[in-house]
Structures are given as structure tokens and as C-alpha cells.
Amino acid sequence: MASLTDSVGVLKGVGQKRLVGLNKLGINTINDLLTYYPRRYDDLSIKDLATAADGQKVTVKGIIIAEPTVMFFGRKRSRLVFRIKIADNIYTVSFFNQPWLKKEVSANDEVIVFGTYNQARNTVQGMKILTARTANSFDSIYPANKEVKQATIKQLIKLAFDAYQPLLVDIVPASLRRRYRLESFHDTIKNIHFPESPKAAQRAFRTAKFMEFFLFAMKVQILKGAHRKTDPAAQIDYDPKVLDKFNAQLPFKLTSAQTKVVREILADLKRPIQMNRLLQGDVGSGKTVVAAIAILAAISAHKQAAIMAPTEILAEQHANSFASMFAGLNVNIVLLTGATSAAARRSMLPRIADGEVNLIVGTHALFQDDVHYANLGLAVIDEQHRFGVNQRQALRQKGTSTNMLAMTATPIPRTLAITMYGDMDVSVIDQLPTGRKPIKTTWIQSAKTDSAIGFVKKQLRQGNQVYVVTPLIEESEAVDMKNAVAIFERFRAIFEPDYKVGLLHGQMSNQEKDDAMVAFKNNQFQVMVATTVIEVGVDVANANTMLIFDADHFGLAQLHQLRGRVGRGSTQSYCILIADPKNEIGKQRMKAVASSTNGFFLSQKDLELRGQGDITGAKQSGMPDFKVADPVGDLNILTVANEEAQNITAEKDWKTKPENVQLAKYLQMNQTINYD
């Protein structure tokens, strides 16, 4: 029986060599071929060159007035030239490296040419010669490779569509198609590959985008449901009196955003289901105290809690913070990192294994083979994007029914929250504690660097400390950017001996980095020249100013993270961006950071300006690949598709409803999801 999962090898003209070429394009099955969408369309309707713009792709029809000629340059390069008369005007047409076309054209022939119009030279650089049948249409243009050409892809798609179109049944339920005016799957495929007009293609692409997002969201919801299996051992019956006592001794009142998030986490812990929650909070929003309440809840129910940080210095900071916060409560804390001495480790591990220690703070050392827990009820992952999925899972598996709370200070726009973390419940602290002063941010061009240095001197005289950030460690011939070593030497010449200047970069050992940050925290250095290694890390309350060189080389979200290293104390803080962006987008990015301290706004803006693949200067791991849908540009469609998937899977018997049968069947066959 024919199926959309048939290999493309079943099509006429697909031998072993061509099959390999198709596979390289990601085309393995008939379904892959039919959903191999064009990247653009060429409008082949005949144009009047009198109204055409310079550089425009045009289709023209005229009479060849002289015999075409071919000139060869070397072995493989050639140029075919002929002149055509259109109305009363003469135009020169040239085709490069297609000498065989000479056989198709002769003097006095009528010819239809598609190519690029050069207004100044009165020429058309030809791309292809059309027939009367192919002119006045919309030509689909596909990504191709050396093994499989454009024409072959089109021919195979037509073969597949003609043979398999009866199998193009609707997967999206009829009620959703009516509600959002979506086309049938059959018409979507037909109008994407063989559109009669640009509007027909546009409507079909709108449906294809919804389908991609919707099927992805359905998969995520099923995955989420699998995580939510009933597990009585995961339930944490915390003691509310212990939490009340903790809240009463806090020197501040929780913000309404923190209170809301605490309620969400505590409700999760009470359920007989493993918690899988992501806590987002902008820089300085107070995530640590929220984590402390979750940790104390687990400990009050006689469970252990562990918090894993990406660096030893951050782990140490957490251990000190929690020791201070939990003073007078029944919390026994240990710090376990790679720097923990062998003797300390030997005495610590049995106390963790028998449950005497109920809060373990550390780094990757927390999930090593010889670390055993008595009853790990809660695993907290700080700066979770710095850990791989396997590392997070390794810590969780140290307990039998461990609840997971992942935290990030990197604001994640809705686009990424839906696509990357759709299987997690998300809590957001979108409010800063009262009394915290927003960081004043200014963008200047490098010509004004001296005035920025003057401002730094003023801050140092007032007893404050300063960060100086640069994208490079050492000078690069390829890139004209300021570098940390050169700036370090320059600033030492300017500020020493009055003020000490330190250096911190990624090529230093962990111990050297930790030593440098501790020295800065203890005010042994007043100026810290650093690369982005200070993006996440230690709170230095006395540091109130940051200078960022070549700021246009960082992502907006990254600039916001860097800026968050200042503003930790009560004094007014400042961030000065030094950048000479080369284009309008670069200028927009600098203006955005200077005008907003809202990390969520900036991370969404970053996606819009830079694209989904490069949100922090590196390929964003975990982002799904969509064929036609763009999570940034099509955010509204993504949001609606996600909501509809949630609504459908919220019903217990959704798979047996008549309108969902094809959807359930498709997901089971194509998304390798096991419903059992």
C-alpha cells in the first residue's frame, strides 16, 4: 500500500545516485519531498521595460534581430549574446556559461527571456529562456545541490503530488481550520508548489506555518504529559510554620511578583507529580530568595535539597548567602566543588549519604558517581542554560522522585520560552525589588572615549569600583576590536599607582579567575578589565560603573546581562556603551539597550534584529528547526498554535475524538511518540 512514508526512491527517475543527493537535502520520504517548500517564487509575467526598475528580475518578449554569438573564456567560461527588439527599442541579452542555449535561438525568432534588467546599459542578463506555456506564471525556486538540480526537484514534486495526492488527508482538526481560515492539507501542498497567484501561495504558506507550529506544540504537550505522571514519592508536605518563620526574619518584604512565583512553586511541591519548572527573573529581581523558600520547604518535609551553580565562585556565594538566610533554622549546609579538598570530601560524603546534611551547594561535583543522597527531594539548577540537558538530568537522577527548579537570569522572550522550554512550567519574576535604582545607560562613539575615562576617574575618586569589558582577549589582525590585554596595559598607565587594575579572561584557569574576582570583591582592584566571563557571577556591591568597548559586537541580551553586574548596591549605577556600529541595525541595537532596562523587551528585540539563530552571539542550542515557520516573525501564529495544542491535550480522551483521529495517528507515526 502506498504511504507518505514511502522512500523517494520509488519515484521514476530516482536511482541510487539521485537518492543520495535527495537525502543530502533532507528528502528521504514522499512526505519530505512534498513538504520541501520553495524558498521564493519568480514572477514570470511579461513586463514592460519602460516601467521596470533597475536591477529588477523581469520577463521580456521580443524578436531576435541578428544571429546570436558565443564567446569562450578559458575552458569553462562563456558568454552567449544576442539583441532583441521590443516595440521600437533594442536591448542586448547575455547568458553566462550556458553555451548550449545557442541551439535554441536564431535570428528572426520570437523569444521570451527571464533575467535581470540593467537600466543604464539597456541590457538583460538572462537566467532562462521560457516557452509560451511557462511564461505568465509563478515559478517555484527550491534550494538545490550539485547532485539534484532545480528542474529535477520540480519534476519529482509533480510526480509525487500526482501519485500521492489522495493520501494528503487533513491532520489539523476541522474546527481549527474553520476558526483560523486554514486550507486543507491537499490545497496547501498544491498552492505552495503550483500557485496560480502570489495570494494563493501566501494563503497556503500561512496554513503550512500553523501546521508546523501546531504539530510541534502537540509533541511538546504530549512530552509534558509524560512528565506529569502521578508519583506520590515526589510530593513534599512542607511545614508552613517553618516558611512563615523564615519570611518573618527576612529584612525585606517579597515583591508581589516573588510572592506569586513562590505560590506556584509551593503548589507544585504539594502535588504528587515531579515539578519541572523554569524560574525566569531579570538581573537583580530576587530569584535567590525564591529558591531559598523552595529549598526550605523541601527540608521542612525531611527531604534534601541541592543547588548546582556553573562556577565555583558562584557556588561559594550561594553557600554563604544561604548560611546567612537560614541562620537559626534546622539547615545543615555543605559546599561541594572541584576545589573541595580530599579530606573535606571524605568527611562530607557519608553525611550527605545518611541525610545529616540537608542542603548541598556545589558545581558539577554534585552528580559525580561517588556522591550519594539519602532522599534528594529538590534539585535547583542556577543559570540553567550553562548546563547541558544530560548534566541537569544527572543531578535529578541522584534522587528517585526529584523535583526540578531551573533558574535563569537570561530573559527568554515568549518565542524561545514556547519553543525551547515548552515542556516546562514557566514562572516569571517581572518586577524589581523596591528601592533599586535603574542603571543609567549611555551609548557613545569611540571618539568620545576620553570623556568616559574622565567619568570613570570621578567614580573612583568617590570610592566606587569599575568594570571594563571588551570582546577579545588579545589583539586580532582579522578584527578591529579593542582587546583586554591592550586595554589592561592602557588603563594601568592611566590609573596606577592611585588605583589598582586587574585582568580577567576566559583563558585563565578557574583558580586564577576565582582569585581575580575575589580580589576585586575585596577591593584589592578598583578597576577590573574583563571579557564576558563576568557576565554571570559574583555580586560586587561597590562596583557601580561599567564601560563596554565594541558594544555592538555583543547581543542585546548579553549586554543586558553584563550591565547587570553593576547596580547591586544602593548607589546610582552607570553603564557606558562604546561602539561605532556600521549600519542602521547596529545603531538601533545600541539605542535599544540605552533606552530600556527591561531584559524581556531586549531579548525579544534581539531576536527581531539578529534572528533566532544568534541570540547571544552563538547558535542557540535547543531551538527547533522549522521549514517555513519563523518563531520570531510569526510569533502570533506560534502563540495561537501553542494555545490550541494545550486546549486539545487538556482533554483526557482527545485522541479518540473523531476530528482528532488523523492528528493522533500522524503524531504516533511521524513524531515517534509513545502514548502508553
Explained architecture:
Residues 268-429 form the Helicase ATP-binding domain. It comes from Lentilactobacillus parafarraginis F0439. This is ATP-dependent DNA helicase RecG. With 676 residues, this protein is an alpha/beta fold. It has 4 domains: 46-135, Beta Barrel (OB fold (Dihydrolipoamide Acetyltransferase, E2P)), CATH 2.40.50.140; 232-429, Rossmann fold (3-Layer(aba) Sandwich), CATH 3.40.50.300; 440-596, P-loop containing nucleotide triphosphate hydrolases (Rossmann fold); 634-670, no CATH class. Helices cover 37% and strands 18% of the residues. The chain has 21 helices and 21 strands. A 7-stranded parallel beta sheet has the order 11-12-10-13-14-9-15, with helices on both faces. Strands 16-21-20-17-19-18 form a 6-stranded parallel beta sheet, sandwiched between helices. Helix 6 (198-227) crosses helix 20 (635-649). The longest helix has 30 residues, at 198-227. It is globular and about 100 Å long.
